[in-house]
Every structure is written in C-alpha cells, then in structure tokens.
Amino acid sequence: GCVGNLGGFAGVFDACSAGYRHPLLVSGTDGVGTKLKIAQACGRHDTIGIDLVAMCVNDVLASAAEPLFFLDYFACGSLDGAIARDVIAGITDGCCSAECALLGGETAEMPGMYRKGEYDLAGFVVGAVEMKDLLPRSVDIRPADVVIGIASSGLHSNGFSMVRKVVEMSGLGYKDASPFGTGHTLGADLLVPTKIYSKSLLPVLRGAHVKAYAHVTGGGLPENLPRVLPRGLAASLDSNHWEVAPVFAWLQHVGGISESEMLRTFNLGVGAVLVVSPEGTSEVLAAIRQSGEKAWEIGVLAEKHGDTPGVIVSNLGESLERALKCCDVTAATAAANHLTEHES
Amino acid sequence: GCVGNLGGFAGVFDACSAGYRHPLLVSGTDGVGTKLKIAQACGRHDTIGIDLVAMCVNDVLASAAEPLFFLDYFACGSLDGAIARDVIAGITDGCCSAECALLGGETAEMPGMYRKGEYDLAGFVVGAVEMKDLLPRSVDIRPADVVIGIASSGLHSNGFSMVRKVVEMSGLGYKDASPFGTGHTLGADLLVPTKIYSKSLLPVLRGAHVKAYAHVTGGGLPENLPRVLPRGLAASLDSNHWEVAPVFAWLQHVGGISESEMLRTFNLGVGAVLVVSPEGTSEVLAAIRQSGEKAWEIGVLAEKHGDTPGVIVSNLGESLERALKCCDVTAATAAANHLTEHES
Is the pTM of this model over 0.80? Predict the structure, then answer.
C-alpha cells in the first residue's frame, strides 16, 4: 500500500490498494512508559521498539482493524547512532510481526531535555476495517457470553514504575540471574517484548463469534475489559483458569503489593481478552491456539447489580501463591531482611 | 468523519464520508523541538500545541493532502493538570485552525524521565488526497518556474537551541521587553505560534498551477526546497523580495551567526514555498493573498550545473541589515560588552 515518497515531507499510503472498499480508519498512539528506563539501565535497546509497535497495534485491534502503517517519534538529548539503530531495528521487527508498513518517523534531538543515554518513544498506527467488521458489537453482548483470555508474554509495557521500585527493594540488579528460573538475567526477563496480536487474532476478530476485544494495558483487567462491555453487564473471571506468570507472583511477594493493586497495575498473564458467544467458544479457542497463541476460557458475563465492580476476579491469591513456587525468593528475602536489620 | 468511540482503545474515522473516492492517505509525525524549553521557561503552555499541529499539518500539505485527523502524545514526569489543560487547549486550537479532528492522544506519566514542569510532545496527522491531486508533480517542474514564498509568523518551531544560546548571550530575560519593537515580551515574541497553512493553501495547492510545495523546517530553504525539486534544477532566490523579520536579524547580530548558518537554521521569514508555472504566478499570488497570507515571488528555477548548490540566496546580508534597523540592540550590546570586560 505504500506509495514511493522517499525523502518527502510525509508518507503516502494507498488504503484502497490494500483491498478495502469503504474502509474506516482506526488510529491510536502510545508510548512504552518507564519500560524505557529498564531498557536504558540494561543497555538493551533492540526490543523496546517491538513494545512500541505492540502497544499501538494491539489497541486498534479493539476495532478489528488491520494495521496498515506505523510512524515513530524518537526524542533524545543528542543522537547516539548505535542506540538509534537498535531502537529502529526493534520498531522494524515490530512492524514486520504486525505486517504493517513503517511509513515514517521523526528523530528529535533536544539538548537539555533528555539526559545522556535517555530517550523517549511515541508510536502511531493507522489501521482499516470495513464497517461491517467493526468491533465492539455492543448490542450483541449479553449475559452468559464467554470471556477468553489470550496469554501475554510477560509484563508487556505496563506497571514498570512499580517494577523498578520492587527490583530496588529486592536488592537484585538487572544483570543478576532471574529469580523466575528462566536461565536469563532479571533485566532480560523484564524486557521480554509485548506480544503483537494482529496476525494471530485478526482473522478470529473478523469471524462471526467475537463480539468484543479488549487490550489489557494500564488499569489491568478491571479497567480495560469494562471499556468494551455495555453498562449493566459485568465479567466474572477465575484466575485458576489461566496461567499467572511467576514474574507477577515475585513482584507481589517482594513488593508486598495488594491483590487489587496487582490487578490494576499488571496484566497478570492475560494480554488481551475476547468476548465470545457461548456456542462459538470452542471454535474460537481452537482457531486462536491454531495460530500459536495460548488462550483460555477465563470467565463469563452476567447482569451487573448496582454499584458492584465491572470485573470480579476470584482465586487470585491462590493463583499467585502457586506461581510463587516457581520463583527463587531467597535473594530478595535476604535483601529485605538486611534492609530491615540495617534500619533497626 | 469521526465515528463515535469515546473511551475506546483507538479513534475511528470515516475517510469516505469526507468525500474521497479513492483517497491516498498521507501521514506525518513531528515534535516542536526545544521551543518547548522556552514555553516552559515562560510558563506559557497554551500555544505550543498550535505549533505541534502546524509542524505536522504543514508537512502533509507537501502532498496536497487535506488533514483529516490528528493525535498527540504528551509525556511528563508527573501530570500537572493546569499545564496539561493549556497544552491540550493549544492542540485543540491548532486542530480547529487546520480543520482536522483531534481523534485521540496519549498522556504518559513517566516518573524519573522528565523533570518537574518539563514535558515532551509529539504529534501525528493523517491527511487524504485524491491521486490526481498528489504533489509534487516532479515531471512538470522545469527551468523558469517561479518560487513563491509564504510568510512565516516568526521562528515557527525550528532553531530554538540556537535561539536559547543567543538569548543567553544577549543578557535579556524572556520577561524583558522584546527588542523587536512589538511591545510584547521577548518570550511572547519567540513563542508566536507556527502558521498553519492548510486552510489558506490547500485550494491553491489543488489548482492547476502549483507543481510543488515545500515546508521550510529544520535545514531552512537550502535543505527543504530541494526535497521537491528534480535533480538537475536549482532555485535562485533573492531575499530582497521578501520581508526578513527583525527577529532573525537580531539573532544573527547578537549571536554572530554566519549567513549560511542562518539560512540552514531558520526560515528567515518564509514558512513555505510553492513552485508555480510562470503563467500561473499572478493568479496563485492573488489567491494566496486573498486567503489572508502574505506571499511574494522570491525566485526562479534554473538548470543546475555540477556540484553547485540547489538553492542560492542573494542579498541576504543587505536584507538582514535592513531588518536589524527595526531592532533595539543596545541591551544586548551592553550585555556583550559587560561579558567581554568581565572576561578580560
């Protein structure tokens, strides 16, 4: 769909050549938050661009839009060629995974604005969807509809201010062995890039059974799932039905974080959710698994009464406890004890 | 063209309802550079959003695209409601002037990334143009075509790292009276928002006579005009044919900046240029002036020989000298003398 325009002032894209008859354009912008600070602390810049593309692309999927093109904004104090090259390489990888064109970008050098080695990133995506495929189909959503959870790859790009605090409390460095038994460093495990769901989920989202998709970002399941539900409906989820990844259990344990704060800060293993008709559930689950994603039936919709929450998650404590068994908490515990002794 | 989607994950826009049959999408991203630092130093946040919209919108005009919608990325350390409100108000003003929809945005709070009171901004615009109207029409551009310059409103959003250095050398503060005889403060004069050209220029750009449009941003006339010229053609411009604003003369005088650096850093009074057929020039000039913009015939295209520059500007020294007569340089001169005495 790209129309050649190298060195031009703007990128040109032909949406009609992408096969659309009357496309709605769907557009979103996002950053990667303070996951940047961890990338910068680890000196590892080649995957944060994947996160940037993912955060934007996974948002336009909420309209069942196919990502067409992406633009990035890269801001720094003074340009470090090696860092910029790695960052752009990650963005290019992300665009390949999302099958969208990298149409343009802006590199801004702003002396005095960013410290040496620091930079910020913003991404912008435009997708397209035929009117008939547009999600959410709110009028069709009803009690007993099933909530399907799609596995995240880890933290994705939310909650990193909290992550940094907990890592500091743990006494671990980003280069230390990960306490999650992966054989990687802690930094590498925290930086695992956000999953890009467009290729795997788009065919499913445009099928007959899916009524809504929510991207689980800041605010977690309790704030993102209700964004696509009609008033009057609530979701009842059971965390025993999905895999809560060890990283979340470790963060809760070391940081002493409440369950409700965990729910509103992290994806807890579910990067996106679909609302599906009960009769279509097994077909949708099979299609998603066929595409290579892990997915689970994690809950169901029901009438919402009065001021009750829009999302209830049961068995979270139990799930976190089970996940914690995969973590090595000795180092963190020793550090915490040391801190306590030091303070008393 | 907006399709209601409040609280949704992404904005939805119907380009076909905007009257396009086979629209090409034209997209650009930009920031406002260190003009931000001056807005922040002056505590004046309600016009920098206009600059942000202008920098993006004026870029997609290079394809003769009508801006359809805009998204912003606003990043700060911790959100200051009053500042954010002013910034967004400016963005809204800019979108009104450009007649494009503010379709969405992202507000990122990143503790430890930005200092108190500091923030960064990125903008993204999507425009549309029918294939038949797409600019530049490079094959039609030939020797003797006329270059029309459109007046800028001042510095626009480029060269501000240099501006900040010169202001520091001048001994003036942003709250001091402007040395340009405007009756405003220096800060206010430096912050005059970038002109948004879409409303006034789009009808002209889609007329028969215009072959190319260049947005004069970083790199000035020498780097931006050649971006739309075919190899083998150069532009010969005469700065006596346009109004070089006093601000540029003052910056050169106080900063001791060479003419060639002035040309590559600032717009020098010309915010955009059009390449027009000789027979269409008077009609195009009349139409632009009718729309309320100042415009001048500033030069002509000719064959380019060998390694000669793509843009030659004559009489610049004379024009700057004349403009300097409108400036009060006593304060800056006194400060410079004081510095010199102090150092010796």
Answer: yes
